[in-house]
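User: Hey, my collaborator sent me this sequence without any context and asked if I could get a structure. I don't really work with proteins. Can you help?
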Amino acid sequence: MTVDYGQQRSHRRVLTCTAAALLLLPACRDRSAPPAEQGKPASAAGPQTDQPVNPDAKALAGLMERVNEYVALHRKLDDSLPHLSKEATPEEIDKHQRALGKMIQDARSGARQGDLFTPESQAVSKRLLARVFGGPDGPALKASVMDENPGIPTLKVNERYPDSVPLSTIPPQVLEGLPKLPEEMEFRFVGNSLILMDVHAHIIADFISNAFPQ
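Assistant: No problem. I've predicted the 3D structure and written it out in structure-token form, which is a compact way to encode the shape of the chain:
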């Protein structure tokens, strides 16, 4: 019997290739299948829960957002004016202040009460003031404010604070309860109103009527 060694080698090559293909088949299937994590529904990661929002904090955050927008306008207009030197005279400072104030008034010609102090932030501010002045030091704090309180009969947003009216003192205990303002802005009491004042431009940016506890 004649053995065809070439045919045997051919058969062995076919068997080897077939076996290799069978071994590689599962790996090919694994690569084509999507990962198990991708196949999971979104809810499998657990329910998403929203954190509760403090309405007072939200109202004050909204107030500060509007204040910062005002300050951005203030700084943009201020940068367009000639810069004052450290040796500027009182007359030069006053001229710069009035020029800046006029530019802000023109830019906010449609400003109205409540643009910065929205009803929500007004209510929160009044509660904060009532808490401070309702405490054990309340009478003394009120007396210190009223001692220098000018009491202007009529306030208007976007108008210059009257030059003839002194600025009242704000006790630190009161400021601790109110949001921290940028350096351009200050809280002041005028009569029974709490005003938000642009101290660099001497402009009443906004105010809360009947804010001071009676």
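In plain terms: The longest strand covers residues 185-190. You can pass these tokens on to your collaborator as they are.
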